[in-house]
């Protein structure tokens, strides 16, 4: 198997391995922020949580499912963790870990942001971990976040209109940061996938539906004037879609008038900019 896998294909292969082996309890995969479900995977990181480490040569069989191995080496430092670094013949690189469920504490300092793709224990839902580890958004915080977002959007739009590009990249990052924060709360409100391992137990916006994720990626255009105007309206549209879903899920009110008035003003501003 020399073809480069998409992230979705990688996930399905990893899930089949987990389902076929009784020793596996959970499957974790790291999904990078730049990866959508249809992205090609040049690097992957999978972790199987197991009842015990009596795998013998089974770990190599697991590794071979993802492609033809060019080279690999073991990087195991803990008796409850098996770790391999692999390079496949198509030059895809991978980190492959098998971890005893007795050793979860060892993994708390991992830099990677793992998501739980498969949990065989149907009695344990991600919502349990959300209650324990993550602060849920209040309606006041939701309103403050919304107002701050549109205030920064207005500042950014005015800079585009006046062509004040000195700090425009800094303003752009602020807007994207606020969008990221809202996206996190969208995932939380949906009770979707929670990072259980790694630093700070952060949520990550993986497995948001493809349309939202692909639209989000288009916000990271080159810092050119036309691209930035397009990105600005894309960001507003995405923020609205996320906000309305958060509001439905958590029974909050959404500041529709603020949204409408801001976007109307931006359209007028862009028209003026084009007619100059």
UniProtKB/TrEMBL annotation:
Q: Which domain of life is it from?
A: Bacteria
UniProt name for this protein? Aminoglycoside 6-adenylyltransferase
InterPro entries in the cross-refs: Aminoglycoside_adenylylTfrase, NT_sf
Q: Where does the signal sequence lie?
A: none
Q: What is the lineage of its organism?
A: Bacteria, Bacillati, Bacillota, Tissierellia, Tissierellales
Q: Which Gene3D superfamilies match?
A: Beta Polymerase, domain 2 (3.30.460.10), Nucleotidyltransferases domain 2 (1.20.120.330)
């Amino acid at each position: 198997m020399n073809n480069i896998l998409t992230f979705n294909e990688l996930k399905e292969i990893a899930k089949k391995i987990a389902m076929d082996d009784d020793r596996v309890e959970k499957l974790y995969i790291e999904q990078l922020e730049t990866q959508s479900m249809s992205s090609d995977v040049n690097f992957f990181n999978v972790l199987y949580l197991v009842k015990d480490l009596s795998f013998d040569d089974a770990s190599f069989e697991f590794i071979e499912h993802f492609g033809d191995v060019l080279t690999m080496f073991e990087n195991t430092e803990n008796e409850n963790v098996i770790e391999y670094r692999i390079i496949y013949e198509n030059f895809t690189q991978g980190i492959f870990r098998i971890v005893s469920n007795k050793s979860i504490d060892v993994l708390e300092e991992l830099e990677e942001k793992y998501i739980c793709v498969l949990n065989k224990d149907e009695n344990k839902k991600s919502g349990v971990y959300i209650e324990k580890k993550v602060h849920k958004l209040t309606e006041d915080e939701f309103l403050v976040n919304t107002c701050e977002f549109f205030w920064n959007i207005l500042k950014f739009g005015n800079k585009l209109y006046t062509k004040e590009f000195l700090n425009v990249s800094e303003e752009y990052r602020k807007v994207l940061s606020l969008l990221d924060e809202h996206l996190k709360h969208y995932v939380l409100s949906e009770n979707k996938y929670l990072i259980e391992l790694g630093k700070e137990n952060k949520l990550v916006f993986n497995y948001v539906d493809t349309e939202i994720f692909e639209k989000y990626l288009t916000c990271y255009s080159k810092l050119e004037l036309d691209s930035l105007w397009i990105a600005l309206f894309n960001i507003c549209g995405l923020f609205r879609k996320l906000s309305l879903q958060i509001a439905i899920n958590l029974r909050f009110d959404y500041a529709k008038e603020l949204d409408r008035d801001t976007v109307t003003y931006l359209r007028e501003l862009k028209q003026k900019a084009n007619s100059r």
